[in-house]
Amino acid sequence: MSESKTEPPPTLFICDLCGLNSPFSYYGQKPPNTRAIVLLEECFVAKDPFSPDKEKFLILGSCCSLCDKCVCVGADCSLFYTKRFCMQCVNQHLDQFPHQIRAELAKRRQSSSTTVS
Ligand SMILES: [Zn+2]
Ligand SMILES: [Zn+2]
Q1: What would the pLDDT profile of 51-110 be if each residue is shown by its tens digit?
Q2: pLDDT of residue 109
Q3: How far, in Å, from the CA of 19 to the mean position of ligand 2?
Q4: By CB neighbour count within 10 A (0-12 exposed, 13-18 middle, 19+ buried), where does 74 fall?
Q5: Which of 43, 102, 110, 116 is most buried, taking the most CB atoms under 10 A from its CB?
């Protein structure tokens, strides 16, 4: 591998909510160099820089199925429930998610919020 100036810069995945950014190598449901992996959704995928194993990859994020925002897979930014939803859409359509999901979110909120007096 040689780095030349003519090489285009890597395409960056940028999370619309938290601003996380990282170059990605593939977008889709079946990352290259993997034998039998088909992802549940189209994702931004990057090779795992810490692993020499070609089949190791990281899922950076995906697009919200409602508003098309790019969001990372962080618990604060998106939720996967049959499809990917960004947290903004989740909050807007909270009543359409099953009780189980809402309870999970409420739990998260409680544990992450610091006591404000
Ligand atoms: Zn994010
Ligand atoms: Zn959204």
Answers
A1: 888 778 899 999 999 999 999 999 999 999 999 999 999 999 999 999 999 999 999 888
A2: 81
A3: 15
A4: middle
A5: 43
Cα-to-centroid distance, 74 and ligand 2 (Å): 14
Structure token digits, residue 41: 């959704």
Please report which residue ranges of the chain form alpha helices under DSSP H: 87-92, 99-112
- CA–CA–CA angle 98, 60, 20 (5° rounding): 100
Reported residue count of the chain is 117
Residue 58 β-bridge partners: 46
CA of 60 to the centre of ligand 1 (A): 9
Ligand nearest to the CA of 16: 1
> Under a CB-based contact definition with an 8 Å cutoff, are residues 41 and 80 in contact?
yes
Cα-to-centroid distance, 5 and ligand 2 (Å): 37
Instruction: Compute, in angstroms, the gap from residue 59 CA to the centroid of ligand 2.
Output: 18
Please report which ligand is nearest the Cα atom of 73.
1
Q: Which two tokens stand for residue 90?
A: 């989740």
